[in-house]
Amino acid sequence: MSTKQFDVVVIGAGPGGYIAAIRAAQLGFSVACVDEWSNAKGGAAPGGTCTNVGCIPSKALLQSSEHFEHAGHSFAEHGIDVAGLKLNLGQMLKRKDTVVKQNNDGILYLFKKNKIAFFHGRAAFAAAAGTYEISVTGAANETLTAKHVVIATGSNARELPGAPFDEKLILSNTGALTIDAVPAKLGVIGAGVIGLEMGSVWRRLGSDVTVLEGLPVFLGAVDEQIAKEASKLFIKQGLKINLGCKIGAITPGKKDVTVEFVDAKGEAQKAVFDKLIISIGRTPNTNGLGADKVGLQLDERGFIAVDGDCKTNLPNVWAVGDVVRGPMLAHKAEEEGVAVAERIAGQHGHTNFNTIPWVIYTSPEIAWVGKTEQTLKAEGIAYKAGTFPFMANGRARALGDTSGMVKFLADATTDEILGVHIVGPMASELISEAVVAMEFKASAEDIARICHAHPSLSEATKEAALAVDKRTLNF
Ligand code: FAD
Ligand code: NAI
Known about the structure:
By secondary structure, this protein is α/β, with parallel strands linked by helices. The chain is 32% helix and 26% strand.
């Protein structure tokens, strides 16, 4: 084992860690990044949850399953007859794995390009005396020393007590992405982001999907009007969504799993599923990091305690991404990673938590930024609202996807945009305009006066902005 010295050691190569490493290298530091994730062959697989079992593989399967659904249900309307349509799930999963590998390889290339030393193994604090000593064990066995340490160790799926993930019958996100035969009956506990995305994938491929949600409301963090519209569309598609369920015993059998629960009416129910996905949120990952060895403080929920600048209680130790407070989103992790590298360089890195977009990649997609109508009401902020349905948008009609709407919320006095909420086609792309507008403190009128290409879905954004002033042109 040798000792290698760096200015900055980053622990974790997910979106928080690898981006922090790249930015630190750009700023002239000598940088090492350590990550323990291995692929099926035991090789390094940087990219974290996002690349390996999160954003990337889920979006690959969402895309493939959407093609399958279109081929089966909407091609005929376009005059395309597909005879003998058949699912080749093996190929679909293989393609997903290829997309993941391309991303792993892309990050390894970026490490090389930026002269970042990458170590495949588990990092743990060994000692702190002026500089930090980090031991790496695994494929690489090294001791690294650094003045600055950035922790980006991510999160793990939360288990339900008494129902540990076996990834065969009781699945976390990891197992949900590798089911090798379409389950006839799929149960999902938790109607959150993963539940809806993975539930949609398997429903499109032919599963009868039942979602059991604990809360009495659907997508509580989403604007109520948008959530209501989305719920209607998902139910129409065939997702069976049960709100207000109290989950009881979960009993795996040989080939299926039984879930006992009390439904919203207070009645005891029992459901048998071929597979069960549990997606009830995620917990921060500080396993084996040696946090106690150096006195690194965690908060009461196990997150690494940080201030607004991602500083921990230890000098020159920073933490970003899912392992700290705030939304568990890849782009939030990346923004924090960039900001921390810039702060290490004495610059004023900044993350604007008010303009972090959210996207749920269902069909239609749900995307939003800023405040919801219910939050504005609760906070007593006077606002004006404007909505525009995709039904009245020419491009949406041509696409054959007219579900949903764009909704603007603007300050009643200043007209500043306070929130934009979309359920509809390509909402994930459309939301960027709203993020830019809010970053620049634009008014709804600013968007309404900008020329938008025709025919495009973005015209619905312009029209929703016009609707704030009750002067839509096409509705
Ligand atoms: P991670 O990506 O979890 O990376 C942490 C890395 O640290 C891992 O590689 C881990 O192996 C490594 N590590 C941990 N401890 C050590 C150690 N001691 N030594 C060495 N290495 C260590 N977010 C979005 O914004 N958009 C999406 O579409 C989206 N889809 C998702 C879909 C699913 C199914 C899931 C589960 C999540 C999704 N997310 C999405 C969330 C996103 O994946 C996370 O917010 C993001 O990955 C967090 O990045 P991170 O860098 O903080 O941590
Ligand atoms: P989530 O927080 O989105 O949803 C969890 C759901 O489970 C909630 O509706 C919650 O009320 C419910 N729940 C919690 N405990 C329960 C219980 N005991 N019984 C029944 N229901 C219960 O968490 P999820 O879906 O696991 O995803 C984790 C995180 O990963 C997300 O919060 C998000 O940050 C990230 N993610 C982001 C994606 C994106 O940006 N498109 C996609 C997938 C995940």
